[in-house]
Specification:
The protein is of the alpha+beta class. It has four helices and five strands, in the order E-H-E-E-H-E-E-H-H. 26% of the residues lie in helices and 17% in strands.
Length: 137
């Protein structure tokens, strides 16, 4: 644990901020599948995990359960970097950055797995018909 970013971390990066429990579970998915994981910043005050990812990830990140921003992770207001927290390194050595798409997929899998069973058992709502859509070709 450390209060400063480790030297292995790339200086220029974007950061995914996710709720702590599902964020760490997604990191476990990456580690279990031998995907590279960077150093991680944990904010115990706001229960958030900050995962450094490559520059450009923020423009592609459209997840309702987390956010991605340029530079340091943001917790509460989404504007200021979080002032509380500490850095941890994965057991198997840290990569310079976590792959953004791989983390997105792992976080989505974890979020899906944590959904209550009654939500998963509900039939999907039918898709609305598009006005002027032609069926058949």
């Amino acid at each position: 644990m450390a209060t400063r970013p480790p030297a292995v971390l790339e200086r220029l990066h974007h950061t995914v901020t996710a709720p702590l429990a599902p964020g760490l579970a997604a990191i476990d998915v990456l580690l279990d599948t031998s995907r590279p994981v960077s150093a991680l910043r944990i904010c115990p005050q706001h229960h958030r995990l900050h995962v450094p990812v490559p520059v450009g990830t923020a423009e592609r990140w459209h997840a309702p359960h987390s956010m991605c921003s340029a530079g340091a992770g943001r917790c509460e207001d989404g504007v200021r970097p979080c002032a509380v927290g500490f850095w941890v390194l994965p057991d198997r050595g840290a990569a310079p950055l976590t792959h953004g798409d791989a983390y997105y997929d792992a976080l989505s899998l974890v979020r899906y797995a944590l959904r209550p069973a009654e939500v998963l058992d509900e039939p999907a709502a039918p898709l609305p018909e598009l006005e002027g859509a032609h069926h058949g070709v």
